[in-house]
Amino acid sequence: GENVEQHPSTLSVQEGDSAVIKCTYSDSASNYFPWYKQELGKGPQLIIDIRSNVGEKKDQRIAVTLNKTAKHFSLHITETQPEDSAVYFCAASQSSYGKLTFGQGTILTVHP
Amino acid sequence: DTEVTQTPKHLVMGMTNKKSLKCEQHMGHRAMYWYKQKAKKPPELMFVYSYEKLSINESVPSRFSPECPNSSLLNLHLHALQPEDSALYLCASSHTGDLETQYFGPGTRLLVL
Question: A104–B41: do the CB atoms touch at under 8 Å?
């Protein structure tokens, strides 16, 4: 089955800096890659996603890049703010019925 | 409205109890999911319902029994659980399931004594 590795496990930045989280996947058939943000006591919330026919997608301060040849994708957050502090999960999916395989998560802390 | 609701928010149960978790969405989604999340770990898929039929069971022990009474509701019946089943149980839904955004509820935090 699919295996997703995510790095780093923790990331600490100063407010205003950029943050980058990287994921690699094993199944070349995977073609949908969402990123979720989970705040304490809440369920994961989608922040951005990308499909395999697209190399890059941007939404305001958040961008995702996908390299299908290398089987990795990355989340970029610019101009970080303290409210960006949360756990971020990448995921990959290639099957019907929407089965997602998650990475292990990155705890992002943005210091004011 | 992109809201998935779950009840109860917290649940404490003994190993001999029977309880149920409930999930509801009114987005017209036809795929619904149960995930289990342990502390500091990612969500792990348990079950997927597609058009009210069970389409994926990730080899979940029979002490967990899912039910989808209609397209808006998803239940998870719990019986004879073990302490290691203590976790956050998340429900999610998506339009039809294929390569689409999954919307998660806030979860039910379960403690098995």
Answer: yes
Question: Beta strand pairing status for A10-14 and A106-111?
Answer: parallel
- Contact residues, B window 36-75, toward A, CB-based 8 Å cutoff: 40-45, 48, 50, 55-56
Looking at CA atoms only, how far is residue A21 from chain B in angstroms?
A: 15
Mean pLDDT along residues B83-90: 97
B85 with B110: CB under 8 angstroms? yes
pLDDT in tens, B9-51: 999 999 889 999 999 999 999 999 999 999 999 999 999 999 9
Half-sphere exposure of A50 (CA within 13 A, CB side): 22
Q: Is the pLDDT of residue A95 over 70?
A: no
User: ∠ at Cα A105 (A97, A101), nearest 5°?
Assistant: 20
The owner of tokens 């919330």 is: A45
Contacts of A51 in chain B (CB under 8 A): 99
Calpha distance B42→B110 (Å, rounded): 16
